């Protein structure tokens, strides 16, 4: 029997390696940016077209390469960072595996121009799907320029798995942010289809975070710094009141390398445990400096996972440092760009005046047994708050049992669990308790409805219908509002624009990362709504629904819209408003469950009420 094991050709081996290294255009962007950093560049340009599918170009002013190095960099396992096995435990560079350029060249058309500062001319190399095309001298600037064209052109199955351009562009922006955040001393630019997305000058860490996420982040940041014999920790965390429903703005860097670590993430979240609800996630940008000999970065193809020798100690240090910063700095919002604390604001400008103790006003002639209680004379505020709260003359009738005939009501079957009780109110009279629940008498006892969950269910089904028939009515705004989003959220909003318009929004693009909101859905009613805040919450809620629940686009959009625009617990409702809410709830396809899967309606049978009184 003949031998059956053979060595793979280099072109096939490179394509297999590309499956690990280059999963999408963003993967190639990450590798090229890291190579530019390792080359010592202080200015890096990233240019992409068609979300990286047509072109990815990285231009740097780094050290450049010689003729031999330019050719060698496309060979597998060719690297300038590792000479022996022990070097794997002393890595301080970004790249080191020596597979990136060979893998990228195997699935694209690559053209590279490079020149060292001491050379008079540079080198041009062209490669087409691992096939060497040409190498020749060329006049070019110091540093390296690499163009990657038609990614996955020779592997159509891989190309078909790529998402839409806005989705792929969001991944590219993610990778760009991670690299740029770790190197604030380097100037970065990003252009997409001829439009400038980022222009980041060399700056301090705080300015880099603000430039990446927006000027309003200046007041959200709290500094963290801790030096120990195990690690040095520095960076910023977000104030609790600015936490979001998604984890997008959470960054850990170990020796300036972005990593994903659920264990260390838990250390940060635990520090916020008593300050945030379970479904809110704080912002943090934290840098860990550690001896490379105490970590292993060579445990994952994308180098985003690391093993530590002393995980528990690192966890404890991070947790205590974050908790201490929250207590120390989260006092007042900062105004000065480089100032995090506001202790001076705690001193009263009237400190030189005598402090007068509070006094208590009372009526010595007050008689609680007098036939008419005199009005409180403490001020107009008390009277204005209570003047509309006079008890009804017929309040006693609430406790009477009526025997008159019941009006005809439409009986609604809400499934097997409630098939013996049709939630048929005896009267169209409802009572609101604690401004959260609506209570009504039914044949078998009492029905209680969660008003917020009910309204979310109504709006969710209505918005889903609008997304299907594209007929969401709009209510024009008297004064159009502009909303400026992060580049990532802006790309997401553009991809959702048609569906957002179907909901009833009138939205159009307006300049860099900015949209104009000219109308909102009629379904939101005439309440005072902050259009900008509503739109931002819509995008944030959509991201949360897609990440956590893995919902399709329209379902996630309808769910986010319903949650953000529904009436909240604590809202007072009139009798007509409660009537309308109940009628619309019973008209829903699934009225007895909220969009979170929890009950909207609860019933308390008479027998259970009787047991409370030992009958």
Automatic annotation (TrEMBL):
NCBIfam families (UniProt xref): mutl
PANTHER family registered for this protein in UniProt: DNA MISMATCH REPAIR PROTEIN MLH, PMS, MUTL, DNA MISMATCH REPAIR PROTEIN MLH1
Its job: This protein is involved in the repair of mismatches in DNA. It is required for dam-dependent methyl-directed DNA mismatch repair. May act as a 'molecular matchmaker', a protein that promotes the formation of a stable complex between two or more DNA-binding proteins in an ATP-dependent manner without itself being part of a final effector complex.
UniProt lineage: Bacteria, Pseudomonadati, Bacteroidota, Sphingobacteriia, Sphingobacteriales
Annotated ranges, domain MutL C-terminal dimerisation: 429-573
Keywords: DNA damage, DNA repair, Endonuclease, Hydrolase, Nuclease
The protein's name: DNA mismatch repair protein MutL
Organism domain of life: Bacteria
CDD domains tied to this protein: HATPase_MutL-MLH-PMS-like (cd16926), MutL_Trans (cd00782)
Domain DNA mismatch repair protein S5: 209-327
GO biological process: mismatch repair
Gene Ontology cellular-component annotations: mismatch repair complex
Similarity comment: family membership: Belongs to the DNA mismatch repair MutL/HexB family.
Record-level Gene Ontology MF annotations: ATP binding; ATP hydrolysis activity; ATP-dependent DNA damage sensor activity; endonuclease activity; mismatched DNA binding
Transmembrane segment boundaries: none
Record-linked SMART domains: DNA_mis_repair, MutL_C
Signal peptide: none
Keyword Iron (UniProt): no
């Amino acid at each position: 029997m003949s031998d059956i094991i053979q060595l793979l050709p280099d072109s096939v081996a490179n394509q297999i390696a590309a499956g690990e290294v280059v999963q999408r255009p963003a993967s190639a962007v990450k590798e090229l940016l890291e190579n530019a950093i390792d080359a010592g560049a202080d200015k890096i340009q990233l240019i992409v077209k068609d979300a990286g599918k047509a072109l990815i170009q990285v231009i740097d002013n780094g050290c450049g390469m010689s003729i031999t190095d330019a050719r060698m960099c496309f060979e597998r396992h060719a690297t300038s960072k590792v000479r022996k096995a022990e070097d794997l435990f002393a890595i301080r560079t970004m790249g080191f595996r020596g597979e990136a350029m060979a893998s990228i060249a195997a699935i694209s058309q690559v053209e590279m121009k490079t020149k060292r500062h001491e050379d008079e001319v540079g080198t041009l190399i062209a490669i087409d799907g691992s096939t060497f095309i040409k190498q020749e001298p060329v006049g070019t600037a110091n540093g390296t320029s690499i163009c990657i064209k038609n990614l996955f052109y020779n592997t159509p199955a891989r190309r078909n798995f790529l998402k839409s351009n806005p989705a792929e562009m969001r991944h590219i922006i993610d990778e760009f942010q991670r690299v740029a955040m770790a190197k604030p001393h380097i100037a970065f630019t990003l252009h997409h289809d001829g439009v400038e997305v980022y222009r980041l000058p060399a700056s301090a860490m705080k300015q880099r975070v603000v430039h990446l996420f927006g000027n309003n982040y200046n007041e959200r940041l709290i500094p963290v710094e801790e030096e120990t014999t195990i690690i040095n920790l520095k960076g910023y965390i977000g104030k609790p009141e600015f936490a979001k429903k998604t984890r997008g703005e959470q960054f850990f860097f170990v020796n300036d390398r972005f990593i994903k670590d659920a264990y260390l993430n838990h250390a940060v979240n635990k520090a916020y445990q008593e300050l945030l609800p379970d479904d809110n996630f704080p912002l943090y940008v934290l840098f860990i400096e550690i001896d490379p000999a105490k970590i292993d970065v060579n445990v994952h193809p994308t180098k985003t996972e690391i093993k530590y020798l002393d995980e528990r100690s690192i966890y404890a240090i991070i947790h205590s440092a974050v908790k201490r910063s929250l207590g120390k700095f989260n006092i007042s919002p900062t105004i000065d760009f480089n100032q995090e604390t506001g202790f001076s604001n705690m001193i009263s400008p009237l400190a030189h005046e005598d402090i007068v103790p509070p006094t208590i006003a009372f009526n010595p002639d007050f008689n609680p047994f007098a036939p008419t209680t005199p009005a409180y004379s403490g001020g107009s505020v008390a009277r204005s708050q209570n003047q509309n709260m006079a008890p009804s003359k017929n309040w006693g009738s609430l406790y009477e049992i009526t025997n008159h005939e019941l009006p005809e009501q439409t009986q609604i079957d809400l499934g097997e669990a409630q098939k013996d009780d049709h939630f048929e109110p005896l009267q169209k009279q409802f009572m609101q308790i604690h401004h959260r629940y609506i209570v009504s008498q039914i044949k078998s006892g009492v029905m209680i409805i969660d008003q917020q969950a009910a309204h979310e269910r109504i709006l969710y089904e209505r918005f889903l219908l609008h997304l299907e028939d594209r007929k969401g009515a709009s209510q024009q705004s008297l004064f159009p509002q502009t909303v400026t989003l992060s580049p990532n959220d802006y790309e997401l909003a553009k991809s959702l624009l048609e569906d957002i318009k179907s909901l009833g929004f009138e939205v159009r693009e307006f300049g860099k990362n900015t949209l104009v909101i000219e109308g909102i859905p009629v379904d939101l009613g005439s309440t005072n709504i902050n259009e900008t805040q509503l739109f931002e919450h819509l995008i944030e809620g959509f991201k949360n629904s897609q990440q956590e629940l893995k919902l399709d686009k329209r379902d996630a959009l309808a769910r986010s819209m319903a949650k953000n625009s529904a009436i909240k617990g604590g809202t007072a409702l009139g009798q007509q408003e409660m009537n309308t809410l109940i009628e619309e709830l019973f008209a829903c396809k699934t009225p007895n469950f909220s969009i979170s899967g929890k009950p909207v309606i609860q019933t308390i049978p008479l027998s259970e009420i009787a047991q409370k009184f030992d009958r």
